[in-house]
Amino acid sequence: MRAGLRRFAANRLAVAGAVVLALLVLFAVLGPLVYPTDQVTTDLASANLPPGADGHPLGTDALGYDNLGRLMVAGRVSLLVGVLAGALATVVGTVWGAVAGYVGGVVDAVMMRVVDAGIAIPAIFLLLVLSTIVRPTVGMMIVVLGLVSWLVPARLIRAEALSVRTRDYVVAARAMGATHRRTVFAHVIPNTVGTVVVNATFQVADAILLVAYISFLGMGVQPPTTDWGAMLNDGISFIYQGAWWLILPPGLAIVLVVCALNFVGDGLRDVVDVRGRAA
Amino acid sequence: MTTAIPAAGGADAAASPSVRTARGGFGRYLFRRVLQSLAVVLLVSVIVFALLHALPGGPARGVLGQQATPEQIAAFEAANGLDQPVVLQYLAFLGRTVTGDLGESYLLNQSVADAIGVRLPKTLLLTGLSLVVAVLLAVPIGVYQAVRRNRAVDYWLSALAIVAYSTPTFFLGMLLILLLSQTAGLLPAAAPQGSGVAEVLAQPAGLVLPVLTGAVPIVATFSRYMRSATLDNLAEDYVRTARAKGTAYRRVVLRHVLRNSLTPVVAMLGYYLPVMFGGALVVEQLFNYPGMGLLFWSAAQSSDFPVLLGCVLVISVATVVGSLLADLVQALLDPRTRGGLR
């Protein structure tokens, strides 16, 4: 554990990523408490102000919402949906992959063809179709995003489970009378945890990107709720007036958080690799 | 250790090439992969069919609109066999789809097949151009990084690739519009309009920003593939042999290593089709480029389900075929596979 921490600390980009991530979470979660703004009632009298005007450090948007405050509440939605959808995808994918890899044979073949079929339908297209069918609330976005992005972890964990299931401790557990269910949940899945954790980081990064895409395409959470992608969608109408303050802050926030998660994931992979080599 | 279990890889797309050939050559592998792909396409059609039935009110409400009366819906269902068992309905749907009948658009006064047929070539043009630009950039970048591995330049280019990969395509496009079009006034931000590929090509200035926006994420991914493929090849014996025979390092890299590392990377393009379609969706929406992505987006805005599901079906089949081809090319090209085939 301590060796792992040292290994992680040696990867400077990973540490920087973790710091940036922590700051962004603080910004979104605690920011509105320090810097409270009204993000529900529109204020057309002070709409489209440039940065710095009238006590609005980042200006206001077309409806008069303070842009800095909006960046915070939008961040809450983006991060919440990203983290929970990534977690849901990881859980579903891990169980699916572990069962397929552990059982093997026809069951495995059928389960993995389902994964292939899911991967064949690009997530963003499926998401757009689904958001025309269901009302895209925050909770619904989490479920829908989680249910279209569990496929990659399923493939990864299945590959791990294929090797884990031949290990002596799994064979021994079965010989001692452990049920299949117990073997999968107590032996197979815990021994794939490195892969699961590393992949979960990338899952969250991808989920945050996907939410942004859906919202940018106008099919995400509905006003007055907003997220960073929806802020960009609102900002694009003002791009020709050069209203950069409506575009750069949410865009850079997405890039920062996704980059940070990717760097952290790389750092975690180093940690896991070390353990794999020692074993 | 895993090879000891015969049951493990019954139908294993991810099996290593040596495992494939151990089971009876390329012909057998080809046959198995084609069968698998057919199974996947069938499953995709089941998913699309299920989506069609998940619509509020089912397909009848979908075709007749939200104002349809229960009587109209009953009549429509009887006329179109929707009162039949689901399995029969699915088979009928499958039969229509196989013959190219994807239904009628609610809004376009056009069949879905025609609507896609008119726009698909323009999307292929846009993504094709992005792809060419991207490969022309990614190959030299990846080779350069491999040659200068673990130096500062390699480190920074890798970090830059992660930043580019983490940047949503639409934000990148907006940045380019803001910089090159709005501030500098160099390039138009609106894509060329027109019904055919020729009209689009007649306005090349308008293509620059969309093509560039589509190319950057591909560069980010493929320069990484290219870097690692080149690194693998640089470690091979033939490089040492060529160097020992007195061939200049530069010549070894450009003639031998480049050729050997390029092929697997180009084969990777087959797996990359879904990402490219996704990119086209955003780029076309952002620049108002009249391709299949924009068709899909406007269909989503107006709940034009036949168009939505038709597009999903076409894109998914293309994705399956793309990864099948990539698998086959890789199995053919991998020298270890070839050795095992004889």
UniProtKB/TrEMBL annotation, chain A:
Highest taxon of the lineage: Bacteria
Record key words, sorted: Cell membrane, Membrane, Transmembrane, Transmembrane helix, Transport
UniProt xrefs under SUPFAM superfamilies: MetI-like
Entry's transmembrane regions: 77-102, 114-134, 140-157, 204-222, 242-265
Membrane topology, as annotated: Multi-pass membrane protein
Keyword field contains Mitochondrion: no
InterPro entries in UniProt: BP-dependent_transpt_permease, MetI-like, MetI-like_sf, OppC_N
Pfam families: BPD_transp_1, OppC_N
A Gene Ontology BP annotation from the UniProt entry: transmembrane transport
Subcellular compartments: Cell membrane
CDD domains: TM_PBP2 (cd06261)
Major subcellular site: membrane
Domain ABC transmembrane type-1: 75-265
The keyword Membrane appears for this protein: yes
Family matches, as PANTHER family: D,D-DIPEPTIDE TRANSPORT SYSTEM PERMEASE PROTEIN DDPC-RELATED, OLIGOPEPTIDE TRANSPORT SYSTEM PERMEASE PROTEIN APPC
Entry similarity comment: Belongs to the binding-protein-dependent transport system permease family.
Protein name: Peptide ABC transporter permease
TrEMBL record, chain B:
UniProt keyword terms in alphabetical order: Cell membrane, Membrane, Transmembrane, Transmembrane helix, Transport
Family matches, as Gene3D superfamilies: MetI-like
Record PROSITE patterns: ABC_TM1 (PS50928)
One GO biological process term: transmembrane transport
UniProt superkingdom: Bacteria
Alphabetical list of InterPro entries matching this protein: BPD_transp_1_N, MetI-like, MetI-like_sf
Compartments it resides in: Cell membrane
Domain ABC transmembrane type-1: 120-326
Membrane topology label: Multi-pass membrane protein
Residues spanning the membrane: 34-55, 124-143, 155-180, 200-222, 265-287, 307-333
Family stated for the protein in its record: Belongs to the binding-protein-dependent transport system permease family.
Protein's name in the database: Diguanylate cyclase
